[in-house]
Amino acid sequence: MQKRLAKAFFEKLAEGADDARVSTETDPDQRIGENESPGVLHGLLCVAAGMRSARALAAEGKTCLLEDALTIYYIAEDLARDPANAELLPFVEKIRKAHEREFGKPIPAKG
Asked: Residue 31's beta-bridge partner residues?
């Protein structure tokens, strides 16, 4: 039964089902009916949907962090042009080098 349940789970997942009713037929000899562990399959599909959502949120958060870091860089770069803020130059240079190391290209122009 566990093998059939796992197979049904991955089939539903491949179909993109997050909250599908359980009534999957693979072949006449292997059948998971609505009364045979539907809660388990439903639960697994819900967990999978939650994991996809978490990955999407993490990617979105990473994008926001990068945007915020670039904003800080642009502000520091502007401030460092004033001789009174010369102590910011090493900070700006460290950010520039870290970005190039991480992304393999220079920081995009402010725009």
From this structure: 25
pLDDT tens per residue, range 24-34: 444 444 444 44
Q: In sequence order, which residues have a C-beta less than 8 Å from that of residue 41 and are 6 or more positions away? A: 5, 8, 9, 12, 22, 32
In a domain, 68, yes or no: yes
Structural domain including 80 reads: 2-103
Structural domain contains residue 111: no
- Tokens matching residue 7: 């197979």
If one counts the domains in the chain, the total is: 1
What is 50-102 written as a DSSP string? HHHHHHHHHHHHHHHHHHHHHHHHHHHHHHHTSGGGGGGHHHHHHHHHHHHHH
Interatomic CA distance for residues 88 and 44, integer angstroms: 51
